[in-house]
Amino acid sequence: MTDDAPRRLLIVEDDARLAATLAESFLRRGYQVQVAAREAGALETARRHPPTHAIVDLKLAEGSGLGVVQGLAARDPQTRIVVLTGFAAISTAVEAIKLGATQYLAKPATAREIEAAFGHRAGEALPEIEAPQTGLREQEWELIQRTLAEADFNISEAARRLGLHRRTLARKLAARREGGEAD
């Protein structure tokens, strides 16, 4: 794949909020993004919109993340597949790699970590995570969005996890919605 070739990403995640957060992050990074929540839907989406990259949740409510990995790798062995899981285990990591995954990461993983994992080749050391090309405010916004999703969009809980006062977080969210910046 050349550097100017379109990067088509398939996100297979049954947590709609996490899928939306990942989709937004990768859209900003220049990827064309498709999202699926089930194994069957993911494989159908891949048939209609063949991905160059995929992020696959290991445990899906309907179907298997490993089944998705196997199906994607069978369709195109060049697809860069990163498996995400909240239940990391050596046995499933080995199985995912055998089935065609590029890398296996424990949740939570940042978009930068996932993108670095796309560049991993079997038998090589993990690539260095490059310095962010986004500004500090953009990194802060990604952290806020990820923390909000993890806290089920409870602003008080997200503020506690971020070490912010609830009103400060609410002000930052309001400023972002309005297109401004909050300090």
UniProtKB/TrEMBL annotation:
Coiled coil start-end: none
Stored SUPFAM superfamilies: CheY-like (SSF52172), Homeodomain-like (SSF46689)
UniProt KW Isomerase keyword: no
Name listed for the protein in its UniProt record: Response regulator
Record carries keyword DNA-binding: yes
Record domain Response regulatory: where: 8-122
Keywords associated with the record: DNA-binding, Phosphoprotein
